Amino acid sequence: MTDGFLSKAYGTRAPEGVRQLYDDWAATYESEIGENGYATPGRCAAALAQYVRDKATPVLDFGCGTGLSGLALRLVGFETIDGVDVSADMLAKAKDKNIYRTLTKINAADKLPAAPGQYGAIAAIGAIGASAAPASSVDDIMHALGSGGFFVLSLNDHALSDRVFEAKLCEWIDCGAAHLLFKEYGPHLPGIKMNANVYVIEKA
């Protein structure tokens, strides 16, 4: 199925256009991607849960949207989850789920509102790539993690076709500043035959 906003999602690039897209999409987002079998939140949460033993460690859900990613994290046992997103309308939907400790609206140009080491893990689930956060977000997230912190993220087929996104991860891994613990290619939105890589990275 490609009706609604999903058919437009990967053609929007400018930060203000992305914010407007997700504000406009908020009311129907979950039903539309649900119809297409959105698998990535569950895949990312399960992958992160393999490596974070203390499920009470605070997790930041970067680009949390309507809270599907936070819900997936909660379902695998994470207890303390904060969310940030550029869309106020998406955040309003996330608030209704009552799973986040805090929810914060950020601007695309802002630095991540997190002190280094404040979070034991940061998740960017469906949040980096085409019509989403830029590759530079990887640097912001990694700088916000302390040594031994974990970063779980997904890159869908659109993001993988633009080498800048995976190359940014490799910059951290290849120089030894981080270690790749998990990488798996699998379903993202089966309804439109789109897959994604899921990664778990530990900061050195």
Q: Brief overview, please?
A:
By secondary structure, the chain is α/β, with parallel strands linked by helices.
Report on the structure:
The protein has helices at residues 15-25, 29-35, 40-49, 68-75, 88-95, 137-144, 157-161, 164-174; strands spanning 59-62, 81-85, 102-105, 119-124, 145-156, 178-189, 194-203. With 204 residues, the chain is an alpha/beta fold. Strand 4, helix 6 and strand 5 (145-156) form a beta-alpha-beta unit. The protein contains 8 helices and 7 strands. The chain has a 7-stranded mixed β-sheet with strand order 3-2-1-4-5-7-6, sandwiched between helices. The longest helix has 11 residues, at 15-25. Helix content is 33%, strand content 26%.
Outline the secondary-structure elements.
Layout: H1 15-25, H2 29-35, H3 40-49, E1 59-62, H4 68-75, E2 81-85, H5 88-95, E3 102-105, E4 119-124, H6 137-144, E5 145-156, H7 157-161, H8 164-174, E6 178-189, E7 194-203
Parallel strand pairs: 1-2, 1-4, 2-3, 4-5
Antiparallel strand pairs: 5-7, 6-7
Unreliably modeled segments: none
Radius of gyration: 15 Å
In DSSP terms (H or I, runs of 4 or more residues), the helix count works out at 8
Give the topology string: H per helix, E per strand.
HHHEHEHEEHEHHEE
Q: If classified by CATH, what would the architecture be?
A: 3-Layer(aba) Sandwich
**Multimerization status:** single chain
Please state how the strands of the largest beta sheet are arranged side by side: 3-2-1-4-5-7-6
- CATH C-level class: Alpha Beta
Give the tally of β-strands: 7
> Strand-residue fraction?
25-35%
Helix content: 25-40%
Give the averaged pLDDT, no decimals: 91
User: From the helix content, strand content and strand pairing, which structural class follows?
Assistant: alpha/beta
The CATH homologous superfamily: Vaccinia Virus protein VP39
Profile the largest sheet: 7 strands, mixed
